[in-house]
Structures are given as C-alpha cells and as structure tokens.
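Subject: Re: docking follow-up (pyridoxal-5'-phosphate)

Dear J.,

Thanks for your patience while I sorted out the input files. As discussed at Tuesday's group meeting, I've set up the holo structure prediction with pyridoxal-5'-phosphate included as the bound ligand rather than trying to dock it afterwards. The sequence and the ligand SMILES I used are pasted below, so you can double-check that they match what you have on your end before we go further.
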Amino acid sequence: MAGDADRGADPVPRAELIAANLADVRARVAAACAAAGRRPEDVKIIAVTKTYPASDVRILAGLGITDVGENRDQEAAPKAAQCGDLGLNWHFVGQLQTNKARSVARYADVVHSVDRDRLARALGARARAERRELTCLVQVNLDPESVEGVLGPRGGADPRDAMAVAAAIDAEEGLRVGGVMAVAPREGEPGEAFDRLNSVASRVRDRYPRATVVSAGMSGDFETAIAGGATHLRLGAALLGDREPNVG
Ligand SMILES: *Cc1c(COP(=O)(O)O)cnc(C)c1O
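The structure tokens for the complex came back this morning:
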C-alpha cells in the first residue's frame, strides 16, 4: 500500500497520496473492465471512508469521487453532516440495527445491508418520516454455513431468502429496491462467490427491472468482482491506506 512506504521523514501530503491511490485504482478498474469487455463508466467507485476523517472525504470529493460509504452510524452521521456542502451520495454499507434506522434514514442515500424484513420496515417508516427516498440493496450472505470470523458478523440474507427481503423493501413507500450487495467469503474463490451473487442479482432484476446495482468488490478483490459483473465497488484501503486491524 502506498501509505506504508510514505510514512517516513518526508511525508507526502495527504491530498497527493490519496490522488495517487485514486489514479492507481482508476487505472486498475479500467484494465479490469477492458479485460472483461465492460465499460469503466458502468463501474462506480464508492470510497469507503470509515475510520478516516471528514477532511479525507473532502479531498476525495475534490478528486471527482461522488459516492462515499460508511459502516457505523456513530461515525457516519457526524461525517455526513460535516460534508453536507459537498453534494455526495452516502452509502451505508455496514451491519445495521433497527434502532439506528432513524439516524441512517436522515443522511444515507443507499443502504447496502438490508438483510431482513424487520429492517426494511424500520427503514421504510423512518424514510417516510424524513420524507426521503432510500435505495436499499439486499445484502446476500455468500457464506451462510460459516462461523463468524475475526472480523465479526458480516450479515446478509441467505440467498434463498433474498427475494423475500426484496419484496419487503418494495412493499415500503419511501424505499426502492436497488439491487444486491455482498462481501466475498473469507475462504474459497471470490470469483465463484460473485457468480452466485450474480444469479441472485438477476432474479431480483427480473422482478424489479430498476434494481441494477451489484455491489461487490473491496480493495482485495475488486478486479475479480469486475469480471463477475459488479456495478459498484466499495473501496477503502486501496484509496486511503490500511486501517487498524479489526476495525470494520
Ligand atoms: C470496510 C468495508 C469495505 C472496504 O474494505 P477495503 O478492504 O478497505 O476496501 C467494503 N465493504 C464493507 C461492507 C466494509 O465494511
């Protein structure tokens, strides 16, 4: 990661470092799209800014990033407020408890982690109260048999329940079914997992034609995700540097 090499006596200014990381990521996205016969403009980069300050969000916005992601409401709510002038789309990508729906519905444009009916109902009620429309993705657990690992629960609906969760979202005025999201399992081939996500994505799209988002791909696997049809990448470390272990 570029950040490590630069931790010396003569640090590169943060904005330059992030600009270099973003240029590198964009080049890799373009190459992966070319290899997959896809158009780079069909793959959106969501900068996941968790653990990094609002000043980094501002730098990213200055570099043309329009979409940012966060995984904890306590951190996201104040950051979104501090960056309210930037006109960004805010993506909530983390595990979400129903009691946080009220807060998230105030600033999030897209919630990637809707994995149960009750959460859809809570978000729907809060979206209506705020007079906002939220796009919701059905988070799919691609590893339903796994025990929770060192990073804690990753959430997601069993693939067999994905259509029911999509229907629960669709039933809520104020919510729109946007597509699907997943985190690749820790074990096994991410490509195979993304193929399984795609089959869920196409079932959801058959039923809800506007639900075109396939949110897949993180810093460690985004090229594979592009080959597998991802439309939205959620990139943290590749843009901003490695986080402390065990944070999100
Ligand atoms: C942190 C996080 C990301 C970004 O991960 P990186 O490996 O830093 O790119 C993507 N998706 C979710 C759900 C996350 O919590």
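A couple of observations from a first look. The mean pLDDT is 93. Strands lie at 44-48, 67-70, 89-92, 110-114, 134-139, 175-181, 213-215, 232-235.

Let me know if you'd like me to rerun anything.

Best regards,
T.
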